[in-house]
């Protein structure tokens, strides 16, 4: 019973936000061409017990919305049965497990700290951490200007935690707002801002 899964398909939330979905599709055949139904179970990482997700499913695909389960890594088990066409005592079953997949609804945490001001230029230390997913894309904006990409101190965003050292251009005296946002691989956006006053 081959199975495959498709990840991170965008769907809509009220208010225009995006929601990530996890879709599964599988193929099952019966040599007698009996009608098949499917029970779906899920199990979290480091858990022992399979929990029911959906019973008596007639279609060979299923989609899980990201807000169905808490953040974490899960697997799904599909159990196919020809019981609809046979007495229960002779009905046959087959099963298969998916590869692990991640549910992540929580945005990265961001902290920003002023390092120094020199000749009208601001240097800011930024830390970004995500508990579940790898970080992806980071941007900064000065005084509600355009968002511009920024790279971590090691040159590439490829882990669950990254450090940044952002240096602004020369700024006029007065108050300035530096905004930072970073996405994880599931498109959750974490944001932070720092207000700085230049003499």
How are the SSEs ordered, and which strands pair?
Blueprint (H helix, E strand, L loop, with lengths): L2 E10 L5 E9 L10 E8 L6 E7 L3 E5 L6 E10 L11 E5 L3 E3 L5 E10 L2 E9 L5 E8 L5 E2 L11 E7 L6 E11 L4 E10 L1
Antiparallel strand pairs: 1-2, 2-5, 3-4, 3-6, 6-7, 6-8, 9-10, 10-13, 11-12, 11-14, 14-15
The succession of helices and strands, N to C, reads EEEEEEEEEEEEEEE
- Poorly predicted regions are 1-17
> Oligomer, anyone?
single chain
Beta fraction: over 45%
* Main sheet record: 5 strands, antiparallel
Q: How many H/I helical runs?
A: 0
Gap between N and C termini: 69 Å
CATH fold annotation of the largest domain: Immunoglobulin-like
| Class computed from helices, strands and strand pairing | mainly beta
Question: Number of domains in the coordinates?
Answer: 2
Q: Taking Cα atoms only, what radius of gyration do you get, to the nearest Å?
A: 24 Å
CATH classification, class level of the largest domain: Mainly Beta
Q: Kindly state the mean pLDDT as a whole number?
A: 88
Name the shape in a single word: rod-shaped
- Helix amount: under 10%
Query: Mind telling me which CATH architecture of the largest domain this is?
Result: Sandwich
Number of strands: 15
By CATH's scheme, which homologous superfamily of the largest domain applies?
Immunoglobulins
